[in-house]
Amino acid sequence: MLNQTQINEVMDRIAAMFPDAHCELNHANPLELTIAVVLSAQCTDQKVNQVTAKLFQKYKSPQDYISVPLSELEQDIRSIGLYRSKAKNIQQLCRILIDQYDGEVPREHEKLVELPGVGRKTANVVISNAFGVPAFAVDTHVERVSKRLGMANWKDTVLEVEKKLMRRIPREEWTISHHRLIFFGRYHCKAQNPNCSECPVLEFCREGKKRMKKLEMVNTKKIR
After folding, report:
1. Does the active-site annotation cover 111?
2. Annotation-wise, does 196 bind a ligand?
3. Exactly one of 121, 147, 163, 222 is catalytic; which is it?
4. Residue 199 among known ligand-binding residues
5. What CA–CA distance (Å, rounded) separates 166 from 201?
6. Fewer CB within 10 Å: N-end or C-end of the chain?
7. DSSP per residue, 125-145
8. Could you tell me if residue 224 is inside a domain?
9. Residue 185 is part of which domain span?
10. What would the pLDDT profile of 20-42 be if each residue is shown by its tens digit?
């Protein structure tokens, strides 16, 4: 596990790599962000943005989403994985927004996680990006990078990773650090082909050093 000084250095170097890290889900308001994050489960942000480009032109309010047959909404998001369950969740959460929150997305984390299709990660993304409340959403990229670097243990659950990052990173930096770790995992420390040979934090990365050692052994054998 990295100590606090090492974590600070790692985050500073990642910040230098991705100074403009941000939420890549296109949205103009809290409702659009909530819908986009629900759609993003097991799906790339790029694909979600392709679908929501037309979706958000057609549906402007929670009422719009529940005013069409479920089958129509399903067709509108058909190219996204799990579209049937996602369409059902979207209509159900929009009904709740109308019935309980005057058609507005609630700002409170505990209320958001009660909405269909909205888990802890989704709620963290919404409160941090839509309402400016510091939060640390842990997606697959954040979890992978945190464990590879040794900011969390390999067997830690997503919640345990989140709690460790929140303890080690200042609260005012939670949201931007979340985005930076996502960018680092999405564009540099990829799941299958991490760019270890050109990584500015390799000296701190237990996984990267192991991969480079194996590569060195393979190259040595080839030379022989």
Report:
1. no
2. yes
3. 121
4. yes
5. 20
6. C
7. HHHHHHH--------HHHHHH
8. no
9. 4-21+137-219
10. 999 999 999 999 999 999 999 88
